[in-house]
Amino acid sequence: MKALNSTFPRIIACVLMSLFLFAAVSFAATQPLAEPFGLALDSKGNLYVANFQVGQVLVYNPSYQQIPSKTVTNALRAPTGVAFDINGNLFVSDESYNTVNEYSPSHTLLQQLTSANGIGGPVAIAIDGVGDLFVNNSFQNVTLISLPLDNQLIQSVNASTLGLNTVYGIATRGGIWALGTDQGFEPSRLDIFFLVGNTENPVAGTTGAAVAFDASGNIYSANLDGTVDFYNATTKTSTLFKNVGYISRGMAVDSARDRVYIANFQGNQIQVFNRQGVLLTTIK
Q1: Is the alpha carbon torsion for 284, 83, 201, 157 positive or negative?
Q2: What is the pLDDT of residues 84-100, one digit of tens each?
């Protein structure tokens, strides 16, 4: 019994030390949010975050837990936008490298679009259902690149030609374009903006620093005054969703789980609301 008593504390100490080391390794493997920019959801509901300040894309599962093994760092320095195509490939814009990278579902770098493809200081991206890539270059012009046609540059539209000073967030769904500008938030058909080089009727009082569609085609618009508006695609009316009090550069809507993710760039966090505007959690 004496030998057992002397051995038991050592066993407990070893177990505790192992647990401590495991926790330390796990903690070190996760990364804090540092100026979260663009947001996107994959088909499984995992949240992808452009962690701007430290040159990485972080991934969180639907339980809000970070998945360190899925962190993307290859060929990134200052990621801004994230988007998925219909094949599950991840696209990430990088303002510092002046590129848009394409990664496979396993996060292998497949290709890199550069200035030769019409990239110029990308700050937001979106991909529609037929594989066209839309790039907001330096808040000054929007470029349309056809990915199915060997990354062919189709057209670029300068903000100044449309009577705008700045363009902000972009999103696409079902042939509809959502664009935030200094003259108002713009929900319109893609052909109006690109093929005709015109705009329709911007929603007054909105800016759309970040925009996102829900599954029904409604649009959330995060504005420069710290408010977030909800645009009903059926009634074509805009109402206040939430006054968050900060400028967001990234949004994503998970309709299946009733969640609206809003990135707080300066606050280094992501707030998650339900579609009634109730705060569910904060990711830091």
Answers
A1: positive
A2: 999 999 999 999 999 99
Burial label for 51, CB within 10 Å (0-12, 13-18, 19+), is buried
User: In which residue are the tokens 């999103």 written?
Assistant: 171
Which CATH number applies to 35-283: 2.40.50.180, 3.30.70.3040, 3.40.50.920, 2.130.10.10? 2.130.10.10
Burial 264-273 (b: 16+ CB within 10 A, else e): bbebebbbbb
Contact predicate 55/40, CB 8 Å: no
Mind listing the pLDDT tens digit for each residue in 214-235? Answer: 999 999 999 999 999 999 999 9
Domain ranges of the chain: 1-30, 35-283
- Transcribe 233-256 into DSSP letters: TTTTEEEEEEE-SS--S-EEEEGG
The residue type of 13 is: A
CA distances from 278 to 205, 228, 241, 242 (A): 23, 13, 10, 9
Residue indicated by tokens 């959502």: 178
Please answer whether residues 84 and 131 qualify as being in contact, where contact means their C-beta atoms are separated by less than 8 angstroms: no
Evaluated on CA atoms 252, 57, 78, 112, the torsion sign reads negative
CA terminus-to-terminus distance, the chain:
50
User: Could you tell me if 121 and 138 are in contact, meaning their C-beta atoms sit under 8 angstroms apart?
Assistant: yes
Q: How far apart are CA 161 and CA 52, in angstroms?
A: 30
* DSSP sequence for 140-204: TEEEEEETTTTTEEEEEEEGGGGT-S-EEEEEEETTEEEEEETTEEEEEEHHHHTTS-----PBT
